[in-house]
Amino acid sequence: MAGILEVTNKAEKEATKLWTVVPEASDAPPETRSGASVDDMLAMAAVYLGVAATAVKPIVLLPAGFGRGTVVGDDAVVLLVDGALNGGGAGGDRTNRRASLLASAAGRLDGDVRGAAVVGRLRHDLGDPLAVGLGAEAAPALLSERCWLVAAREANGAKPASSFAVTPGATGARTDDVAKPAAAVALDPKSGLPQPLAKKRAAKPAAAAPARPAPPPFPAAACRDVLEQLLAARAAEMDRRAAPAGRSVAVVPGTAGAVRWANANDKVHVSAQLAEGTKRGHVRVDISATRLAVKVGALVGGDFKLATLLDGALFQDVDPAASSWTLVDTDLGSAELQVTLAKKVPMRWLMLVRA
């Protein structure tokens, strides 16, 4: 049977499209990244967020088809974030203000988005639910387009917003006039018009704004869920295929897919994809006979801090002197931490660290 990548990649390779990455720091401007397929974009997001593909959490801001009549047309708008930081309670003070405002304006999230984020557009038709492809370009200007945000709030069942945090002067930004209370005016008894206008012909009513085309005949929540599950499945398939031949790779529980490990005859191999620009001096790896601890440094609020990626008791004892770790550059431009643990007893491990 064909794998999910074969099915979903059918006729998907197309012209390169742009997506927007939103840095965690508010003073860093949004940037663009390019790719020619959904898998290219998932891989790019994993590199930018510094996690494995399975740790990328997709959040559908606008389901496909529910933006008809707006600048996004039939496309879905998705927000990709670090699942470990946005899994409920984690993330500390790493709030991404712009991504949080965007998700809130779309009526999708009430809380904060933590860490960096990626925004893109996808084509997805529930009539053929496994078929997903790149939509039109998602340039930084899309983040301030009011029209699709209004449609997103409606699709997500959120109350209409009285205002949106848009960039002044950006395309789609609009300032609504505030109605001022009118003074009491006597009405003409025959026409019912205010007396100053009684002798004038009543103005023709303004033409109503054209209604947006009807959305797809599916519940918006179902469209969101199907697309999010499909993207998560594709990410898992990408990680599975990236594993070395003949070696079963497993995700370490509690790391949201950021750390993976694999058995060998007399060794255990551990890997973690780190953020672009990570250097050896940013990483701390402590290997003892019974424990493995990995910490990675990052700038948080302008300060360099070490965050724990993994710290636990190993399933079996290892030989620290024969164990090692290194940091290598990947073809995607990120850094990958590779740890090799030398087993004291060449037996099959059932887990990397004990719960």
Radius of gyration: 26 Å
- Percent strand: 25-35%
Estimate percent helicity: 10-25%
Shape, per Cα inertia axes:
elongated
The assigned structural class equals alpha+beta
What's the number of structural domains? 2
Q: How would you characterize the overall build of this protein?
A:
- The structure is a single chain.
- The chain has five helices and 14 strands.
- It has 355 residues and is of the alpha+beta class.
- The protein has helices spanning 4-8, 38-49, 97-105, 146-155, 220-242; strands at 17-22, 31-35, 56-62, 76-82, 117-124, 132-134, 249-251, 259-263, 267-274, 283-287, 291-300, 303-313, 324-329, 335-342.
- Strands 1, 2, 3, 4, 5 and 6 form a six-stranded antiparallel beta sheet that branches.
- The radius of gyration is 26 Å and the shape is elongated.
- The protein has two domains: 4-169 and 219-239, no CATH class; 244-342, Immunoglobulin-like.
- The protein starts with a helix and ends in a 13-residue tail after the last strand.
Question: What is the compact description of this entry?
Answer:
It is built from 5 helices and 14 strands. The protein has 355 residues and is an alpha+beta fold. It folds into 2 domains: 187 residues, no CATH class; 99 residues, Immunoglobulin-like, CATH 2.60.40.790.
Topology summary:
Layout: H1 4-8, E1 17-22, E2 31-35, H2 38-49, E3 56-62, E4 76-82, H3 97-105, E5 117-124, E6 132-134, H4 146-155, H5 220-242, E7 249-251, E8 259-263, E9 267-274, E10 283-287, E11 291-300, E12 303-313, E13 324-329, E14 335-342
Antiparallel strand pairs: 1-2, 1-5, 3-4, 4-5, 5-6, 7-8, 8-9, 9-14, 10-11, 11-12, 13-14
